[in-house]
Sequence to fold (159 residues):
Amino acid sequence: MATTTKTGYCNGSDMLLYVGGKPVGHCSTHTTTINSETKDRAVKPVASKGISAGLWKGKGVVGLSVSISAEGLCFYQETENGYKECLASIAKGQSVEVKCMERGSDTQPYLTGRFVIASLERTDPAQEDSTYSISLENDGEVNFDPEAITETSDNDLQA
Fold:
């Protein structure tokens, strides 16, 4: 079968978040934030440099962290990882496996690691859909595979 490369804009609905081995059910949005912790380094310039040469500081990365937040709708017949499953996971007080991947690429996630559920919130407004939000923070090293983003697949030909 022939394959092709995806073109145009990425559809956010094709980007999936898995928590504890299951996709986050009825997810309306998720956000992944990768942060670098930096340190300024100021050194005295060599003696042959001018007076203002010491004004520029260098930067170094001394730490990395990832946080993920997601929002979803509460659904009575949830078959994936909804509010009920997230509540059970946070109550255990242990980190969970997290993966981010494109739809149809479940064997090649672009982000994997252990994460702590930092917060879980549910909102139940009168006469409106109940929603939940979850915040996750990495627990140790996170693995990235940039090549897994916009992976080519046979499904692209059918679009």
In short: The mean pLDDT is 89.
